[in-house]
Amino acid sequence: MTDFSELIDRRHTNSVKWDVKDNELPMWVADMDFRTLPAITAAIQERAKSGIFGYEEVPQKYFDAVQGWYASEHNWRPDTDWMIFSTGVVPTISSSVRRLTNVGDNVLIQAPVYNIFYNSILNNGRHVLSSDLVLDDQETYHIDWDDLEAKMAEPLTTLMILCNPHNPVGMIWSAETLARIGELAAKHHVVVLSDEIHGDITAPDKGYTPFASVNKTNEQNSVTAVSPSKTFNVAALHAATVIVPNAVLHAIVERGLNTDELAEPNSFAIPASIAAYTQGHQWVHDMRAYIESNKQTVAKFVAENVPGVKTVAGNATYLVWLDTREIDMASDKLEQFIRQETGLYLSEGTVYGGDGQEFLRMNVACPKERLMDGLNRLKQGILAVK
Ligand SMILES: Cc1ncc(COP(=O)(O)O)c(C=O)c1O
């Protein structure tokens, strides 16, 4: 069993997350405070030993490792010919937006959603069209199917970016839901780009379903992006895999990634990814159990100690979506208030769109001791508002 309780000091290490004041506790950007799988570090050290870091090709062994991981972890064996290496999920999304849509087209999303989707769409001169997720009184999000279909049917809607599982609300989409999205998308000629970067991080007894694995319709009308970056805390390695089964879509996306110079690995991306996908099974299962226990701690603590705040019960990601609708302050102001008052640095829900202006996002991928510090600061901050 891996020990995730070690408190590692990440201050002054050029970490985006930890580049904060000494009294501040960052629980915002999606980056874990755990050391990665030791086999990844060993693979990087081994590669570094040669002292030669020239241009590299992506070997078949890399694609075999990705295939093996998806077969054993997610019950899906994507053909290795469908795969393209890329230097990241976000670069892939931006490149695909440029290749699969035209300037002025609508790109469909489901807000509240990962804020960078907006950048990939808007920076390329496309429109954001959101079919907002709807929260019920059980704190569970749903798709408004009539709204989704109406927006897909708009003639200028050509691409949907699906977040599967969904950041920030933590939803795992069921196979039925994915089939229904796929059927509507095919009917209205909308390609689905499924961002599955959080797919490995689910509650121990809950797997996620890859969009393209559901049926032939989904398989042939999709671009799937996966990466070890969230799973193994290796974001700065810049490694992702794009899986495009349909030959025409594959050629278009591959040309885009090549033209945008996104398809060549750095010296460590390949050995680290192979180590992750071939030796990381147990580590990931241990990590999922630790995250689940942290999430339960948050749910209990918030219910018992933080008046006016509720947790949304998502089964995926290491991010907890905190419902602050009972508190009379927009989330950007509330986030700033809590940060100034207590040093706790959360993500303001506003940036995710939809109903996000009444939510905060808390990253719980940290040792329990640090989590408790964060929860006590949250309590202190919320009590100070009231
Ligand atoms: C849904 C989602 N997609 C993509 C990314 C980032 O991907 P990459 O670092 O590979 O560009 C994140 C990071 O938080 C994310 O939450």
UniProtKB/TrEMBL annotation:
- One Pfam assignment: Aminotran_1_2
Record keywords: Lyase, Pyridoxal phosphate
Q: Does the keyword Lyase apply?
A: yes
Q: Which Gene3D superfamilies match?
A: Aspartate Aminotransferase, domain 1, Type I PLP-dependent aspartate aminotransferase-like (Major domain)
* Domain Aminotransferase class I/classII large: from-to ranges: 31-373
A GO molecular function annotation here is: cysteine-S-conjugate beta-lyase activity
| Protein's organism | Secundilactobacillus hailunensis
- Which superkingdom, per the lineage? Bacteria
Tell me the PANTHER family matching this sequence: PROTEIN MALY (PTHR43525:SF1)
**What is the enzyme's class at the highest EC level?**
lyase
Which InterPro entries does the record cross-reference, listed alphabetically? Aminotransferase_I/II_large, C-S_lyase_PatB-like, Class-II_PLP-Dep_Aminotrans, PyrdxlP-dep_Trfase, PyrdxlP-dep_Trfase_major, PyrdxlP-dep_Trfase_small
Cofactor (UniProt): pyridoxal 5'-phosphate
Is the keyword Lyase in the record?
yes
CDD domains, per database record: AAT_like
Q: Which family does it belong to?
A: Belongs to the class-II pyridoxal-phosphate-dependent aminotransferase family. MalY/PatB cystathionine beta-lyase subfamily.
* EC number(s) reported in the record: 4.4.1.13
Q: What is this protein called?
A: cysteine-S-conjugate beta-lyase
